[in-house]
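Hey, why these numbers?
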Amino acid sequence: MGLRFLKISVVYFTIAVLIGLVMGIIHNFTLTSVHAHFNLLGWVSMALFGIIYCIFPSAAQTRLAKAHFWLHNIGLPLMQGALFIVLVTGNPGLTIVTIIGSLLIVLGVILFAINILNLKSNQNRISN
């Protein structure tokens, strides 16, 4: 699970960098929030989830970790894809999809928190 999160974080980082590049080239920064969310919820958060799951492999093997992965990776593209369309078209019709995607991410993060908070102090950690 740790490696899955690390690999997908690099995909989101690439998307964020490309959005940033395009915004800079065309001097239109309408998509700044999409760029920032892909960086923070995609690249940074998922890389951290991956590192934490690598450090605590027992947490990575739980159903909570699998649910967390899928909720985050369904929620983020939904939220940002809908927000992208809303920002580009000016039509707020997909705002509900943005909200649904956001709620999926929140639920995934709550599952991650529960998973990590349930770790015992002596639980399976990688050794140096």
User: Anything to note?
Assistant: The CA atoms of residues 82 and 96 lie 9 Å apart.
